[in-house]
User: Fold these one by one.
Assistant:
Number 1:
Amino acid sequence: MPLDTATAAVAVDLVALTILDDELCVRVAKRQTPPFRDHWALPSRLISEEEDLFATAELELARATGLAELPVHHIEQLAAYGDPRRDPRGRVVSIAYLALVAGASTWTHTPSRRWAAVSDLLEQPAAASPLAFDHREILADGVARTRAKLEYTPLAGAFCPETFTVSELRHVYEVVWGVHLDPRNFHRKATSTPGFLAPTGSKTTRDGGRPAELYRTGDALTFHPPLTRHI
Amino acid sequence: MPLDTATAAVAVDLVALTILDDELCVRVAKRQTPPFRDHWALPSRLISEEEDLFATAELELARATGLAELPVHHIEQLAAYGDPRRDPRGRVVSIAYLALVAGASTWTHTPSRRWAAVSDLLEQPAAASPLAFDHREILADGVARTRAKLEYTPLAGAFCPETFTVSELRHVYEVVWGVHLDPRNFHRKATSTPGFLAPTGSKTTRDGGRPAELYRTGDALTFHPPLTRHI
DNA sequence: GCAAAAGTGTTAGAATTACACCCATGC
DNA sequence: GCATGGGTGTAATTCTAACACTTTTGC
């Protein structure tokens, strides 16, 4: 089996999500060159000889967000996309990574890079998508994965600063799932699920009203029974 | 961005699972050539110019099982593996696919291809694994995915023939999860969860005792609340 | 009849849901 | 005081878990 046959360009594409102004947003870059010139695209980089896929995704996250220091974040592999015609220039297999980041803000916006509302990008049918290549499908997969994992993992904390209140965490769920959750029942569920939250002992009044306990993300990988987003 | 830079060999690796003699088994092939000569390896094929990743996995499943006609099965993408040193011959990025198949049997065994018990392959520590490359890790990921998806999808049916009884389905859960389930509660849960089972109207006595209803896999993609494997 | 597996009923406990209600701060 | 959000109590309902019991076949 000679290894110089059947090669392809291999890229890492990034679905970097954050929450901005009560909206789930994704980092996109405007394409400067054909194909899909002036369309928005997910941040992407070809793999180098030394880096593994995960490291490549970390590097691209740092570059794409344009922040000197990466904020709290979570990265995991999403899926591989390898349709022979997904890039008109040739065979490109992309490994998509899903990143959830906190601390994004609109002042990282430039004419060619921004946080775009996911709902705006996905509402168009695939044929009229403002996104280049198959990036609409990749984004949809990333959003679906995120919605699902909030049910049974403490991942929502990745959208919050280092320490956060139960309401701030609930707000993440409400934005990502697009639902309203009962604050009292959510509080009880979050604080009583082992490994969901780690108490810090501090409090804050930044949300107004009575001071709220501050937590860190807990160490559970998954929990049972899960939270439910189904009514 | 010239596309002829940074290419890699791209392969599809297959974690094909089945249930044989009350054991979860995976299809493996003995390597005839270095590296890892005489080790077992997951079925694998380099992508061709025309096929997409899913089609490549289907082709490899047909080849690896050696069956003229593929039995009932389910295939989904598992993950991509791209460590630069995972193959000593050069950079190979593998997209692993997970296949669950029914109707496997020991008469497809040859000296170089067989269904091997997953427990035997995973019980050794990684350093002493009988599996080549990073295939132990890929197999472990595939088994973990399978165990998880049995909780909230009707996927267990993919291990059964076209039509099957509730006990046969329960047997799949017991083997894959390595637990004992109460037949009466399982029966109630399976038959009352919408989309889990589709009645056929037929019965069978092949398991002995009172005739049992035969079902097909239902059309639900996921269900809530899930089955639980936690005690 | 007897063994074996299918399937139903029942009950205690756990989890979810929908609220009423009190608490601690800023103004 | 009063508005605001934080947090606890509680009762109705639903889900789970354990197991007694009945049904329908083969032998």
Note: Residues 165-167, 183-184, 187-188, 191, 205, 207-213 of chain B lie near DNA strand C (CB under 10 Å from a C1').
Number 2:
Amino acid sequence: MPELPEVETVCRGLASKLEGRGLATVVQRRADLRFPLPPDFAARLTGRRVARIGRRGKYILVHLDDQMVWLVHLGMSGRIILGPPEATPPGPHDHVVVLTDDGTELRYTDARRFGMMDLVPAAGLADCRALAGMGPEPLEADFSPAYLSRVLAGRQMPVKAALLDQKIVAGIGNIYACESLFRARLSPLRRAHTLTGARARRLVAAVKAVLAEAIAAGGSSLRDYVQASGELGYFQHQWAVYDREGEACPGCTCDRARTGGIGRLVQSGRSTFYCPVRQR
DNA sequence: CTACCATCCTGGTTGC
DNA sequence: TGCAACCAGGATGGTA
């Protein structure tokens, strides 16, 4: 599920229900996520109060009242769902179950266990292992055309790979990299160092617009629910190119029978969807 | 620095 | 219908 818009959507759901609440009971049902849960994880969380929910890239930041931050990454298949306790029996992939002091149940579910959780001191948050070196937030002002041109100067990598690199810009994954490049009319194969001037401006504007629209739609749902409430996001209905191989390009009037419509190629082992006519 | 690959897991879909 | 191959929103570490 989770790229920046999905994580942001989850965070908003968590903030409205969790801020100010105490964590009365914490049950750890399985500890071997991508990185094992820290020692005494459940005990260190129990009795704490949630001060504030934040986000950095694809990480959820749960600020606690003891100056620690509960860090959550959803990996590929992670979900956090809030609801009434025991609404459904715990499944084999419900790894952490938290009961708050107002009787809300938080369930962390992750079939593939690519997700991660950690507890880190708030004081050194930006320097912790997970967040150190992460690039700017794409919706903030410091993700600018000038920044993008500077950080990509001399880089031979394809621009698609650059967008996926969390050290260059935070929070973008495969779907939104494809959608942003389509919006900017830039080929995913273009060398990163050619992103200067108008092209850099187009890409930065496209990234910001696509992410903002996706957040407004509650993110994209594939096989998993997105929102903390369990509701589906609906941005998947607004995808221009992602998972639309062979369909007509929504931006072109060119003949699909001749061009083959939206194309798919594989870059660093991952599918890229794009319009070979419109994106150069 | 770069591209490419395998790896960590499970589950859903596709194709024979 | 059954079964195997393939694919998936991420990130890392190794290789050449």
Note: The first helix of chain A runs from residue 4 to 18.
Number 3:
Amino acid sequence: MTERDGRPRYARVAQEIREEILAGGLRPGGLLPSEADLADRFGVSPTGVRNGIRRLRERGLVGAEQGRGFVRAPRQRLRRHHSERYQWEKDRARQTAEVRARTGATEFDTDLQSTDLKFHAEYSETAACSELAMRFDVPVGTRMLQRDYSTSCREDDAALSVVHSYLVYDVVATNPELLDVAREPYPGGTQSQLFTIGIEVDRIVDELSARPALPEEAGVLGIEVGASVLVLNKTSIDVTDRVVEYSEVILPGEWTEVVYTTELKRW
Amino acid sequence: MTERDGRPRYARVAQEIREEILAGGLRPGGLLPSEADLADRFGVSPTGVRNGIRRLRERGLVGAEQGRGFVRAPRQRLRRHHSERYQWEKDRARQTAEVRARTGATEFDTDLQSTDLKFHAEYSETAACSELAMRFDVPVGTRMLQRDYSTSCREDDAALSVVHSYLVYDVVATNPELLDVAREPYPGGTQSQLFTIGIEVDRIVDELSARPALPEEAGVLGIEVGASVLVLNKTSIDVTDRVVEYSEVILPGEWTEVVYTTELKRW
DNA sequence: GAGTGGTCTAGACCACTGT
DNA sequence: CAGTGGTCTAGACCACTCC
């Protein structure tokens, strides 16, 4: 019954299914054999199958919902070149609307065209929690504009990123256009929006960390609960050293590469 | 028996244990009640307890090994300021050994002193796999020097980072000192080592992604299997546009913040 | 040696999928 | 509708930790 080789049995389940996927025996988008079938085939209990499959789900090879388990299509890794992207966005802020409308930031460092992209935006008002208050150096409870974005490929509805962006309400209210979600996607993005109220961004600080995806995030990003997300906290600081925007960017960790180039002074 | 409120029962298990930890009822380092006890207390089966606890393990609140489950001490987030750190390392490369010996890179962006740190290094020879070959633009099979590092706090033995660094063997062999692991930790680090063979680094490209920790990584980093790691692929390019070093840096995702500052040109 | 978590078994019900 | 995965139960053995 037990052919122990030192490794748990579910490891063999995971390995063999993985190999079958990579070899092409199980095709992307296709259904996985049922857990009961797999249990029979590998001679383990349903629990063993589930334990094995969990790892494959976390790594993005397979997916499951109630009623079906399936092989995930290998997803292209998206590269985001932030050190160049931010300067590029700044350069565009003073261009005409026509020029700005031509391409969005996602197209800048992706091969994707804006016609391939599905964009979603939602605005709301909130009161600054203690963390936001600290980051913006404003009193707790200050009125903030919260903007929630998600960008997806038009094909599969998996989002490439989920963004929660915050601005001080009274600062952006100077230009009522900026409170109107109907104007999204705003040509040129946030730096262009800030330009309309006389704000010049001096520098952007990105803080990166990682953690397991929460259930809501997993749904939107097209990954499984327990898979990893990259969390990017982005702070924009203007030429007077004031924090003018803060955003939390959630990226599917396994399918994203955020790239920073540090140029060093020559000797 | 079933008091269904729409959420699975294990969610309540996770939530209540979490709250008890945050409230201080369960103290860091202390033992968790046994799974059997928890099953009794919450009126769920052992499986339910395990499902609930799994989430807490992935988020780093609790840990477990065979024979005991315990509350993890809240760990300090380590901030690594790479955009400044790399320039600082370059500046040090031409300093005297005395100056370089004074502090290491980890101390640069941490409050930790080198006396608090435990450093481990191991050198080996490998043949370039296809990925390394591509990154260095050398033939597959080229002799490489592989250097594996880990740095930990002296207190808890959890590593702050695990690094696999690669160099082209014949390039660094110019200075036999660089093949000698006994010289680690080398004052000033890699850029100082490269300086001894006449290499000036022009720029460093960091690519960041995230994925669940593998069992080996989890052990070294003091996190649980299934917790997230930040993966940082670092490429150093010299003034002749040649890749001179490549390394894979594995960081505990929940306890690390990698920081990049992008300075923008003024209008 | 007692007790624990890691692994495993053999069932069950229900919400959901696809047809 | 049949079949599937999500959740759950009630047990078991073993390697390991702690005392």
Note: Chain A has two domains: 9-71, 78-259.
Number 4:
Amino acid sequence: MTTSEPGDAKRPTRRSSNPTVHDVALEAGVSPMTVSRVLSGGKNVRLEVQERVARAVETLGYHRNENARSLRPGHRSGLVGVTITNIANPYYAEMLRGVEEIASAHGRRILVGNSNEDADLEKQLVADFIGRRVEGLIVVPSSAGDAAHLQLERLGGVPVVLASRAVGGVSADTVLIDDVEGARTATAALLAEGHRRVAYLGQRSVFTGRRRLEGFTVAHEALELTPDEELIRVGQQDVGSAERAMTELLDLADPPTAVFSANNRNTVGAIRAIVARRRATAGTGAGGGGDDIRVAGFDSFDFADIAPVRLSIVDHDAGDLGRRAAAMLFDRLDGGAQPVEPRVLELPVTLRDLF
Amino acid sequence: MTTSEPGDAKRPTRRSSNPTVHDVALEAGVSPMTVSRVLSGGKNVRLEVQERVARAVETLGYHRNENARSLRPGHRSGLVGVTITNIANPYYAEMLRGVEEIASAHGRRILVGNSNEDADLEKQLVADFIGRRVEGLIVVPSSAGDAAHLQLERLGGVPVVLASRAVGGVSADTVLIDDVEGARTATAALLAEGHRRVAYLGQRSVFTGRRRLEGFTVAHEALELTPDEELIRVGQQDVGSAERAMTELLDLADPPTAVFSANNRNTVGAIRAIVARRRATAGTGAGGGGDDIRVAGFDSFDFADIAPVRLSIVDHDAGDLGRRAAAMLFDRLDGGAQPVEPRVLELPVTLRDLF
DNA sequence: CGTGTGTTTGGTAACGATAACAACCCGGCC
DNA sequence: GGCCGGGTTGTTATCGTTACCAAACACACG
């Protein structure tokens, strides 16, 4: 386009839209093919031409259209879809960072969706991701609703890795936390200290909740004890409801002397309730009471170490969960021929005393 | 094409790859065009044909290729790019959720990248996002390095909204927390209580840190006071270093009677140092000392309300930050003709006394 | 029965990029 | 001079989808 003939009105100048290889080619006085060649390494292109093209790219602010590229056969989209039940949960945020880290190292970008524990929304997200030709999916499956949309054949052959939770009826690569063992160890520690009335705060409807309750029960059974049903509270979703549940427990005629909580929201709620009770009884001069309730909880959280109670935490690395899940996915994507059987990985946890 | 003639070997059956409109058309015995019509609403297509196509879609597990669709003129990619300096930071995670919420409501998906405070990485992310034809960008700019890549003309006209931090030399829509006012109010509250030696714990290299220090200073100047340089500590990145800095302050000949900290890590560190000192002096029977150090801090955190000191918090909503940034972006994308001037929004903060 | 109106359907081209092929240029060799 | 091989460049066709046009069809009305 050094000289602008009146005849070449084929492509009217469109300043607004993104420039294409064609525009760059005009600017550099070469063919689109040559531009393409320069952009993919410049093999077999004269140096002088390469420089001319580079200048044109710079001048026009050209960016290769990846969507168009991914259209060509054999080309990959470079995208991985991630659906999470709640991005704002620091635990999943940390996991997401792990996924991003590995994806980035493999030259992929991540598409993120929030399923909000809604299977329908999750289904839409997955369908949309497949429509965008993601190469793979990492899914924290929602606890509610059926999961038929995660069947391999429904995904058009796109590999999926389930993270944090398994799904009945779906056989796919899965990375889990060792929920049962974590809950068992923590509960066993409380029992070993002599506590015999240990409460449980958690969930039963969610996969991890069920497993953690199982660990709680197993620890009791190992000592031929049976947990008191009255001390088992399930269904608290947030800190507020957890605090109320703990307060109820403290109000019992025969209150617990220790509590195991199955996630960080419940732990924080329990600690709040204990501290509130401590302040109230301190005023009456009663002294003892809720003061020395022992707490053990699954998941770490910010500033757990300044909690004003004797606290142990079942710690696990969310970032590692994400990295492992992503690694599993890229193993299938970039690794050679794979075994077809899905693999299940259970990540270990550690019990930390924070006092 | 119900009967398969030997001659029609044009498109060999490819079970492995994703089916296309063409495949669906063959299956349903119609033309690709008709399939396309059915998929976009089915206007002017016989009901019987629509059902046939729907069945074929179901049978083959067809998903429209969004990348191919977005190629067509006038069509949008439905993507928004988000770069964050640290996804794992709960504050930005919450922000991300806000962005996702609004994006989702506008029928868009989000591409997420972690810049890790690295301007080069951020630049690559932005370039890649533009290559994928995102309709807009939401960027938490990295504090280090230059930001030429965020210039509007460099972005090929893709609108960008800066979140949480502004960037010198870049004029773009920006959503900020009202750092100056938050720090000013909190500091003013401490001064109003009669404190005259108020320490500052925070940062000076980061945008928000500078602004919060400014608010701290302004509050002093309003009362014709000058903050003691000795009481200003900057550069603490984590709880540990903040605790050490606070301990140093307590060891001064003329220690502060109150402290304003510019973020939650510093607040927690300060509280730790104060509590440690209190325990130490309690043993000596000294009584007073670090006992009644007053604390005010930016950012909330778990257990802020049960902290064992007189604490005020400058509270702000990260989710709101994300929602506002996204709303600003979609205002430009979906709203009609816009004013060209970039807008800057400063979100209000509230001072909460937690005692 | 012819014409007009409206519905349903299919062919063609284009979006942006690039493999595959073809064409060209150049120097070196017989 | 004519031919060959290597480097360089351009042309064509294709990826999956859909807007636009044209064709085919149904039906009503004069």
Note: Residues 1-14 of chain B have pLDDT under 50 and may be disordered.
